[in-house]
Structure formats: C-alpha cells, structure tokens
C-alpha cells in the first residue's frame, strides 16, 4: 500500500487505527550444546536419538508414569514426575533429592478445552490418550500437523498423561506458526478470533471439535488458551486477546526470554496471566539456563517421541494447566469465575516473594503458581515456595 492509499484508509471513519504486520515466533529454547550431555532425563526403558529426542514405549515410562490414588480425598500422586509438575503441587520447595512427586486431583482438567495457539500439536501422540484434537490451521496452504515440535511440547506440559499438569484436559491445536516456528501477527490475530468464536459456539451447543465422550462436559463449557509466542508490542493483539477474555476464555501467555520487564510486552494485560520462568532452585530463569530449567514433554517424529527444552514457552503451559485444573473443579466454585476473577484467585493462593533474582523496581510481581492439591507428606502449613510466576 502506498502512502496516498494509506492516508485514505486512515481517514475512513470505520478505521480506528492501522499498524504494520510483524513477524511472530515461538519463544525459542536454547540450543542443546555438548555441555548438556547427560542432562536430558532419559527414561530407563527408552533411548535418546542423535537429534536429542527421547522415545518411550506406548505404555509409558515406569518411573515417571506411576500414579497412586489416595482414596480418602480423591487426589492422586505421580512418582518421579518432570520437576515442573512436582514444583507446582508443593507449597514448600521440594528437596528433589528425597521428595519428587506430583500431587493433583484425579479429575483435574475434565471437560476443559485448552487451545494451544502455536505450531500445532502431534494429536496422535499416545500421551494425549485421544484428548488432543485439531482445531484450525491459519497460515495459508499449511498442513494440519506440527512440523516444528514447539506446540506439541507445550500441549504435553498442559495435559499429557505423564508430563501434563491437568491430565484430563483436552488440548486443541490452533496453528498460527509454520514449521520454522515463525508466522505473522495477522495470523495470530485470526487464531485468537477462531478461539473466541469456537468457545462461544461450544456454549451454544455447536461443537466444531470433538473430544472423546469421557472427557466432555455438559452445561457451561470452560476454555483456556496458551500462547508461548514472541514478537513486538501490538495494540491489535491486545485487543484480540481482550476480546477473547471478554467472552470467557482464560489466557496464559509467555513473557519471553529476553529478561525484559513483562509489562513492556503485549502480553501484559490485566485479565491474563503473563508467565515468567523459574528454575529448579526458585531462581528467576535467565536464558540459556542449562539443566536448571529443562522440561521434558511430548514431541514430534513419532507418536511416542519426547524432548527436553527450556524457555518461558515451557513455563506458561504449567500455568495454563493449573488454570484448567481449577476451572474443572465444579464443587469449588472456581468454575464459575470470569478470567479476571480467576486470576485474582490464582494470585491469592500463589506463594509470594520466594523467587530469587527478581529485578527491583520492574513492576513484575513475585508470585509462584500453586495447584492447591492436597499433599500429605513433607509439607508445612506455611506458604514459602512454588511454581511459575503470574
């Protein structure tokens, strides 16, 4: 568009503002180096390939997949989970040398759809147990598949049976980035619009996607969206997210890996959860961080592939999973909360001021997410440590 045409468009009463399109990318993890040898957690019954991917049999990893129901309160415990799961279920920071388990409610995520606005999802991966479905492919001419892996990894942290926070949630692929991990802001906006419309249609009884019957919910249907994307500030993106939130979609978004103040980026909206990363030692993550913030989750290449990567992309889905868990707990009343109300509840139950290395005067809050699952051992009643920052 030339300057003359641009001026004419700006003068139209129907046009509020114009901004240039821009490149958006997955918040990329650090590249694996020779120094990382031995840091990837390889299941005893699996193997690592030369590309760094870890493969496990369809029945899952014996150590990381062991779940035990605690009958008196309906909670479950997963032994030796990925450390991020253990972290979000303990108020006190676990001593990972002796305490490494994940406590959660057995129906966490049931009936909740979590939209993964990303590179797509390997929906046939055995870890999703049929609960991952394809929603929309936004880039013109692209395939209904994840050719990158980023979106699949994010989805696994949200809902995979071994690696996921909310193990009964459905994940919905909303592909806005191509296989190289990049895309356009205009496609991201279209993806968010699709999420909002799909959420509204579901609550009008018009499901455009189909989850397996055991994981469906009748009545008011809850939706969560995760965006682990990086790009410049965009008023259009702010308005799109705010519009989706206004119809009831809960959002978790990654703050990015450049250590900037989270409120300098477009994801700093009052009604969404903007997520920074922490390490296994409750330090603010700076990238590259090596083994201190490497998260194992689902991957592409096969239906059992897994990979270990790091970044705020990996922190945000922990929070999205916790949100899905909370809004699925119909007996608690949390399922009736608006996104703004739920964010306040998350802040109220979060553990305060335990993240080390937070920049002073940045305005970024020092809150760590907590899933409020009952924990029966090695816990104190005082709140002193937990999860990812909101």
From TrEMBL:
SUPFAM superfamilies: Subtilisin-like
Gene3D superfamilies: Peptidase S8/S53 domain (3.40.50.200)
One GO MF term: serine-type endopeptidase activity
One Pfam family from the record: Peptidase_S8
GO CC field: extracellular space
Basic and acidic residues: compositionally biased ranges: 31-58
Region of interest: Disordered: 29-79
Keywords: Hydrolase, Protease, Serine protease
Domain Peptidase S8/S53: 111-354
Positions of the catalytic residues: 118 (charge relay system), 150 (charge relay system), 313 (charge relay system)
GO biological process: proteolysis
Family according to the record: Belongs to the peptidase S8 family.
Name of the protein described by the UniProt record: Subtilisin-like protein
Organism annotation: Rhizoclosmatium globosum
